[in-house]
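Weekly sync, protein design subgroup
Attendees: M.S., D.O., the rotation student, P.L. (late)

Item 1: inverse folding check
M.S. brought a backbone from last month's batch and wanted to see whether the design step gives back something sensible before we order anything. D.O. pointed out we never logged the input encoding, so this time it goes straight into the notes. C-alpha cells as presented (368 positions):
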C-alpha cells in the first residue's frame, strides 16, 4: 500500500486566531500536514531552518519585520514555496503583485472571520494555493553568469535601434516567450540583460487580469527597451515588448504590418492568456524568423505551440529543470521534442543575445 505524500506546512501569522483558522483549513486536506506555526518573521526563520517545511503560508502585516521583507530574505537564503495570506492581498493590489514578484506562488486575501460565505471561499482558495505550492520546487534567485554578462556588457545599454539598416533586420524577426509559476522573476532575470536594439518581443505570463498592467510597468523600470501591456491592433516593432493582458489570448497577424490580435477565446490548458495561441500564430506568420522560449511554469501550456514553431524553422530555448521553480511547462516542451536548447536561467539572456546578433548580421528574406 502506497502512503499518501503529505505536504508539510508552516503557518506564519501574528494572530493566534488566524493561525488556528488557517491550520484548521489546511488540516482538512488529506495531503497536508501543518507541522508548526509562527507569530513573526524571526520565529518563522527558526522553524524554517529546523523543520524545512514543503510550504509556508505568510502574513504581510506582522511585527518586527513585515512579510514582504521576510519573503525576500527567505527566497534568497532559504527558498521555500510560499503562499501569502493577508488582508492586504486583494486581487490586483500592489502587495499581491510584489509578493508574486518576490517569489510567492500565490497571494490570497485573508478570510473574514464573521462572513460565512467569504470564509468558505477563502478556505477553498488557500487550500488550492497550498497544494499548488506543494507541487512547486523553489530555487534561489540566479544572477546572470559571466558568459552572459560579457556578451551583454557591450550591448545591453547601447541602442543601435537608430541604425535604420539594423532596425530593418530586427523588424523581420520576433521573440516569443511563455512563462507561468515563478516566471515573473525568471522574466526579470532574462529581460534586464537584453539590449535596447532587440527584435519585437511578445510575452505570455500567466497572471490575473488586474496584475499585468502593473507588471508591465515594473518591467519597464528594469529594461532597456520599451515594455507595454498589449492592446488589440498594436503595431509590433523592434525595441518593444508586448505583454499579453490578463484574461486575453494574444496572437500576431499580418494586417498593414505585423500587429497584435487580442481575443477571449476559450481557455486553453485552463488559462487565458495561453502561450499556445501565441506560439501557433508566430509559427504561421514568422516561421524561421522567430525565436521561442519556454520558462518555468506549471502545466503544459506552450509545448505544442513551441513544437509548431520549431517545425516551421524557428529556434527554440527551454529552461532547464535545475533553475525552474516549476518544471511543468519546460518538461512538457522537452517531452514533445520542441527544444533546440535546454538552458539554465542564468544563460538564457546570452543565448537570446547571440541569436539577435546573428539576426543583425545576416540579412534574410521577408517573413510570411
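Designed sequence read out in the meeting:
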Amino acid at each position: 500500500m502506497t502512503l499518501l505524500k503529505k505536504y508539510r506546512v508552516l503557518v506564519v501569522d501574528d494572530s493566534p486566531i488566524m493561525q488556528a483558522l488557517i491550520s484548521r483549513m489546511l488540516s482538512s486536506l488529506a495531503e497536508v500536514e501543518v507541522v508548526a506555526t509562527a507569530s513573526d518573521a524571526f520565529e518563522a526563520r527558526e522553524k524554517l531552518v529546523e523543520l524545512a517545511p514543503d510550504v509556508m503560508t505568510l502574513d504581510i502585516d506582522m511585527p518586527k519585520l513585515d512579510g514582504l521583507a521576510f519573503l525576500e530574505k527567505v527566497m534568497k537564503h532559504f527558498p521555500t514555496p510560499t503562499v501569502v495570506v493577508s488582508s492586504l492581498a486583494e486581487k490586483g493590489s500592489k502587495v499581491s503583485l510584489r509578493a508574486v514578484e518576490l517569489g510567492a506562488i500565490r497571494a490570497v486575501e485573508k478570510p473574514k472571520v464573521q462572513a460565512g460565505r467569504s470564509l468558505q471561499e477563502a478556505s477553498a482558495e488557500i487550500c488550492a494555493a497550498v497544494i499548488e505550492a506543494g507541487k512547486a520546487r523553489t530555487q534561489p534567485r540566479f544572477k546572470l553568469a559571466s558568459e552572459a554578462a560579457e556578451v551583454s556588457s557591450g550591448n545591453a545599454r547601447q541602442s543601435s535601434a537608430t541604425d535604420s539598416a539594423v532596425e530593418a533586420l530586427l523588424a523581420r524577426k520576433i521573440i516569443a516567450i511563455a512563462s507561468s509559476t515563478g516566471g515573473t522573476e525568471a522574466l526579470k532575470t532574462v529581460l534586464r540583460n537584453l539590449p535596447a536594439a532587440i527584435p519585437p518581443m511578445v510575452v505570455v505570463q500567466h497572471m490575473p487580469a488586474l496584475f499585468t498592467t502593473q507588471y508591465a510597468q515594473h518591467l519597464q523600470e528594469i529594461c532597456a527597451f520599451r515594455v507595454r501591456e498589449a492592446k488589440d491592433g498594436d503595431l509590433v516593432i523592434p525595441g518593444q515588448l508586448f505583454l499579453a493582458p490578463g484574461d486575453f489570448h494574444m496572437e500576431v497577424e499580418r494586417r498593414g504590418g505585423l500587429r497584435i490580435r487580442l481575443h477571449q477565446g476559450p481557455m486553453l490548458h485552463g488559462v487565458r492568456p495561453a502561450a499556445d495561441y501565441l506560439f501557433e500564430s508566430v509559427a504561421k506568420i514568422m516561421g524561421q524568423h522567430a525565436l521561442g522560449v519556454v520558462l518555468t511554469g506549471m502545466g503544459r501550456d506552450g509545448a505544442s505551440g513551441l513544437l509548431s514553431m520549431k517545425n516551421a524553422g524557428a529556434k527554440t530555448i527551454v529552461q532547464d529543470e535545475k533553475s525552474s521553480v516549476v518544471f511543468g511547462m519546460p518538461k512538457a516542451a522537452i517531452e514533445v521534442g520542441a527544444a533546440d536548447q535546454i538552458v539554465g536561467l542564468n544563460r538564457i539572456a546570452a543565448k537570446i543575445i547571440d541569436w539577435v546578433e546573428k539576426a543583425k548580421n545576416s540579412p534574410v528574406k521577408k517573413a510570411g
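Discussion: Confidence is low (pLDDT under 50) at residues 139-163, 364-368. The first strand starts at residue 7 and ends at 12.
Action: P.L. to compare against the previous round before Friday.
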